Amino acid sequence: MKEFYAEIANRMKEGNPFAMATVVATRGSTPRKTSAKMIVLEDGTIKGTIGGGCGEAEVWQAAMESLSDGLSRIVTVDLTSPLDGEDKICGGILDIFVEPVIAKRA
Amino acid sequence: MTVQVTQNEVLAAFLDAVAKGDGVALITVTKNETSGEPPLGAKMAVWEDGKRLGSLGNPDMEEDIAQDALESIKNQKSLSVVYPRTTSRTLRTRRTSPFEVYIEVVQPPTLLVVGAGHIGGFVARLGKMVGFDVVVLDDRPEFANEERLPDADQVIAQDFAEALTEFPIDENTYIVIVTRGHKQDELSLRHVINSSAAYVGMIGSHRRASAVLKMVYDSGVPLESIAQVRSPIGLDIGAETPEEIAVSIISEILMAYKGGTGMPMSKKDPITQRVATQ
C-alpha cells in the first residue's frame, strides 16, 4: 500500500506528466471503495486501479484530458443501469476526483 | 505570516509523511460552486499534532475541516465532507452543497507474523499482497532473515518475549501466531493478549488450541481476553497445505480489517430469489 504512495512521490520528483484519480465517494455496491487510487501517465499507462473495467475507461479519458488542459474535475461513474450491453452491472455510483499532478507543457 | 505553498508541495509533504508512517491527513477541494477561492484541487495537509501545511482560503472553513481531518486520522477513515458542515450525509445534501472536500488518510495496518516457518512465510507474502505492512518475528536467525522473507517490510530475529514486549502494538496491528511449537505459541500469546491489537490469531488444531488457551487461562489471564483470540486461526475453507492455510488466515484477517462476515457472497441472499426477481 505504502509502495504506491512512494511511487507517486517519486514520479513527482522526476517531473514527468501524470494525472491522479481518487475515488472520493461511493453510493451502493461499487467495485472499489473510497480512497482507491490510480495514476495515468502521459502515454496512457495506468498504475494502480479504481475498479478495472467498471468505469475505469471513463476515468482514464478524463485523466488524459486533464493532462492536456491542466484542470481538475470530478467524474461521476454510474454503474447502476443493469445489463445495458456494457460491463456495467457492477452496481453503485462512484465520484472520482481527477487531477493533473503534473500537466503536459502547453 | 503565511507562507504560500503550492498544491504539489502539500501533496509531496503528505506523501513523505505517509512513507514515514506519520499520522497525517490530506484535504483536497473536490467541488466549489461558490464564486470565490479556492480552486479545485487546492490542498491542505493536517498532522495529528495539529501542524498544517497549505491553505483552503477561508480561515473558519480551514478550522472546521481541520477538525474533521483530525477525526479521520483517529479513526482511519477517508471520506468526503461538505461545507458548511452538516450531520446529514444524504445524497441530496451532497448534491445541493456548493463546497466539498475529500479527506484522505493512509495508514496501512501492520501484520505481525510471529513465527517464520512455512506458514509464516506464506502469510507474510499474502499479507504484503493485500496491503499490510508486514513484520516477521522468529528467534531463529536462520529462519528470520531477509533472504527467506523478501516480502516482509521488517524481519526481527530475536527472543519472542523480548521482541513482543518492545514491539509497538496498537489498534491497527494484526497478529498471527504461527511458531514452531505450542510452547512458543503460548509464550507469544501471553505477551500480546492484553494489548490493543485489532486481531490476535493462533495456529493449532482445535485440541491443541484449546490446550494452549487453557494454559494461558490458568496463568491468570481473564476469560474475556481469551475469548477475543482467534484459535484455531483462519476461515474454514478446508485448507491443508501451508499455502492454503495462509490463504485461510489472511482471509480471516481481511474479514476483521474490512468488517466482512466471512460468509460466501452467494449465500447472503438465496440465488433462487435473486434470479426469480430479475
What does this structure look like?
The complex is a heterodimer of chains A (106) and B (278). Chain A has helices at residues 2-14, 56-69, and strands at 18-27, 37-41, 46-48, 73-78, 93-102. Chain A has 106 residues and is α+β, with helices and mostly antiparallel strands. Chain A has one domain. In chain A, strands 3-2-1-5-4 form a 5-stranded antiparallel beta sheet, with helices on both faces. The relative contact order of chain A is 0.26. The model of chain A has no long low-confidence stretch (mean pLDDT 87). With 278 residues, chain B is an alpha/beta fold. Chain B folds into 2 domains: 7-105, no CATH class; 110-258, NAD(P)-binding Rossmann-like Domain (Rossmann fold), CATH 3.40.50.720. Chain B contains 10 helices and 10 strands. In chain B, α4 (118-129) crosses α9 (242-258), α5 (160-166) packs parallel to α6 and α6 packs across α7. The longest helix of chain B is centred in the N-terminal third of the chain and has 17 residues, at 59-75. The relative contact order of chain B is 0.09. The interface between A and B is medium-sized, with 23 and 26 residues.
Most extensive interface, residues per chain?
A-B, 23 and 26 residues
CA-based gyration radius of chain A: 14 Å
CATH superfamily of the largest domain in chain B: NAD(P)-binding Rossmann-like Domain
* Series of secondary-structure elements of chain A, N-terminal to C-terminal: HEEEHEE
The second-level CATH architecture of the largest domain in chain B is: 3-Layer(aba) Sandwich
DSSP, total strands of chain A: 5
Q: Terminal Cα separation of chain A, in Å?
A: 33 Å
| Side-by-side strand order of the widest sheet of chain A | 3-2-1-5-4
Summed over residues and divided by their number, the pLDDT of chain B gives a mean of 92
Number of strands of chain B: 10
Number of domains of chain A: 1
Uncertain stretches of chain B: none
Low-confidence stretches of chain A: none
Main sheet: strand order of chain B? 3-2-1-5-4
State the order of secondary-structure elements of chain B, H for helix, E for strand. Answer: HEEEHEHEEHEEHEHEHHHH
Helix/strand-derived category of chain A reads: alpha+beta
Strand content of chain A: 25-35%
Please tally the helical runs of chain A, counting DSSP H or I stretches of 4 or more residues. 2
Percent of residues in beta strands of chain B: 15-25%
